[in-house]
Amino acid sequence: MIRLDSLTKVFDTPKGAVVAADHIDMEVPEGEICVLLGPSGCGKTTTLKMINRIVKPTSGKVFINGDDTTGLDTQTLRRNIGYVIQQIGLFPNMTIEENITIVPKLLGWDKAKYKARAREMMAMIALEPDAFLKRFPSELSGGQQQRIGVARALAADPPVMLMDEPFGAIDPINRAVIQDEFLKMQQALNKTIMFVSHDIDEAIKMGDRVAVFREGKLVQYSTPDDLLAAPKNAFVESFLGEDRALKRLNLVKVREIVTDEIGTVTPSDTLETALAKIDNYGYQNAILMVNDRKQPAGIVSRSVARTTKGYCRDHFQTVPAVVGLDDDLRKAASLMFAHDQTWLPCVNDEGTVCGQITQRAMTSHLGARYRARQGDDRTPSPAIKE
Amino acid sequence: MEILLYALDSAGLLLSRTLEHIALVGVAVGIATLTGVPIGIAITKNERLAQGVLYLASIIVTIPSIALFGIMIPVLSLIGHGIGYVPAVIAVLLYSQLPIIRNTYTAINNVNPALREAARGIGMSPNQRLRLVEIPLAIPVIMAGVRTAVVLNIGVMAIAAYIGAGGLGTFISRGISQSDPRQLIVGAIAVSVLAIIVDYSLLYVQKRLTPKGMSRQAAAT
Amino acid sequence: MPIRSMRGALKALVLVAIFFAGVWSQSSGVIDDFIWYLPDVQYLAVQHIWLTLMSGSLAILVAIPLGIVLSRPSMARVAESLMQILNVGTTIPTLAVLALSMSFLGIGTVPAVFGLFVATLLPITRNTYAGLKGVNPALMEAAAGIGMSPMQRLFKVELPNALYVIFAGMRTALTINVGTVPLAFLIGAGGLGELIFTGIDLYDPVMMLSGAIPTALLAIVVDALIATIAFLVVPRGVNPGRA
Known about the structure:
Chain B is mostly helical. Helices cover about 80% and strands about 0% of the residues of chain B. Chain B has helices at about 1-10, 10-40, 45-60, 65-75, 85-110, 115-120, 125-160, 170-175, 180-210, 215-220.
């Protein structure tokens, strides 16, 4: 757990004092990733760097796992906090192994233990130990280097990690891959992480919580969904962008809004039955046909059902698309747009049909938050003191 | 032909004066490294002090060696060492300061700030940062400074033969005063070859001392 | 503020020291000794400066065009190996250069000027070449792209951008030159070296210093002079001194 208590930094510049961070109060619960978000110069990086005293706080306190760090020796403090920076900062004069094991060495681990740890870290970041440990940073690609950077920060198994735009210098494709890998690692490691970013999409993807900064002040601190649904003021709203409702699609799983009411037909039903069910369930165009194991087998369209006689098994079309329960709404919406559908069948892990998701349900779910907001417009988020 | 015969004849003398030359320059630059590197590191902490020290060192290098000897002789005569190897060694010591201090200062100052921040962030003490990161990264550039100093001072030491310091310059000074082209040419060629060989040998040492992972960057400098 | 007051005290101390040094030298007659050498100093200093001017300007006139020619793309092959030789050449001690020059050309002003010329030539050629080769390729591409002829590229883009490095080469070279001129006395070309070397032989400190101090001052003045010219001549946008 990381708790900041009234953390403040004032820089003395020739033009006078500049308050880079103004009484920041916040708490990151254990095992969560908190993304500090904001435009450049907003104080997010200063706030992060005050935690390991790369920037010396003017006033205020930092608590880690409940303990005040003020009295701790700076080097001891830093050795117990993982630190990843955008420029990676691997030491070019050391091998990959020496880079990864530097903190354990500084902490006085014995050789066998830190050597084993290096191999363990390589396995965690999915790089072959024998192929990489003896190489030098200059021989690796940017993405590989930053994986090593993460491994170096995690080598001594610190409870807390600070990451300053860690994936900012990596090309977009590799960035997405490394973000996913990192989230998977975090599920196993359960570190408490502070993560600076200026990229709203990265913040929503990586953060359990997002803290938006502006001109040295913490403006809003909430979950990504709350942030997108209820931006606290015009600044946050414009920073999030006009398509912020669409960004929320990433955050909601199909599972949350699926209804198990789905009308289906079987291959042995007549088209008459199909037409009746289409009208009954209020479908515009077609109805899903499932096989005997309840897997999607095809669709029967209304026009066919109305004009033809016979059995469904002879008059169906292929299923345009299905979504899984763990897919996010962004994928569901994309499939609906691509196939000009207003609803999609949902399948569970075994591939059997378990319900449907409709455009109506999606818009109503997203809209519910906005409607709710108009009622409690003046309620500040509990984490912020004013 | 005549010159070659002379060189063969005096091979023993040539060897002993070459060794003397190397020893004098080696000792002086060695001491200069022991003073120059710490000074170069120390002045990275204070920009204004650094400018002052580098300015002073560059003025010293500007002074012609024979003029420096001329100024030092009366002063050192007070302690009975006006002539001989003492003023020569002191001159080499002074001339070596600029390349060694300047290269050390530049190299330490040019260490990528990201590396410095990473080193701080993982909890290295200032001494560990210097020992594990900054000095290893600066070694190639510091060595280049030492190399410049050695090559420069092989020439200075040759002139020091005129104040009785010995070394290969003795062949040249005798060659001129005795109008003996054999000694003159042997001396001039020997000191030139020495400078070239030492330059290449130190370049080799510099490459060997470059941390392995950095040889790619070092090749560019 | 303690630093400022310390500086004031230091200045006062220096003034007092100079005053007492003056009193001492007046009473001991050293000043008269120096004055006795003044005509020699004047005559030899002119000779000294003349040697520098001759060899230095010759070297500049040859070295810069040589560096430009070598940096042309068509010369690339020859240039690399020639620069290797020049690099080796710069490690040769100046006394050896003068000695070799004397053994081929004999005694007098001509071998001295030639030796100085060679010693000065190498660093200037090297820096001219390196400076021109170091011009950002993007600039060259842009210059070619907007339709400049090779000559226009050289004079409008390459030389202005390489000028700082070329001046740095001239500064190094002329410092070496001025430092080597005293040695020219050894091969019979005169100059302030005459007072220094004779002073050493006769063990006459006053004579020695009469040569050494002007030589040292001359070297510092020449160095400062070229630095000032570089500061004024190199365009502001590519002049680190003015940044």
